[in-house]
Amino acid sequence: MTTQNTVDLLRLYKLRPTRQRVALAALLFDGTARHVTAETLHGQVKDMGITLSLATIYNTLHQFTKVGLLKEIRGIGDATWFDTNIDQHHHFFDITNDHLIDIPASSITISNLPDSPQGKVIDGIDVIVRLSDE
Amino acid sequence: MTTQNTVDLLRLYKLRPTRQRVALAALLFDGTARHVTAETLHGQVKDMGITLSLATIYNTLHQFTKVGLLKEIRGIGDATWFDTNIDQHHHFFDITNDHLIDIPASSITISNLPDSPQGKVIDGIDVIVRLSDE
DNA sequence: CAATTATTTTACAATCATTCTAAACTACTT
DNA sequence: AAGTAGTTTAGAATGATTGTAAAATAATTG
Ligand SMILES: [Mn+2]
Ligand SMILES: [Mn+2]
Ligand SMILES: [Zn+2]
Ligand SMILES: [Zn+2]
Question: Which CATH number does the domain housing residue A60 bear?
Answer without folding.
Answer: 1.10.10.10
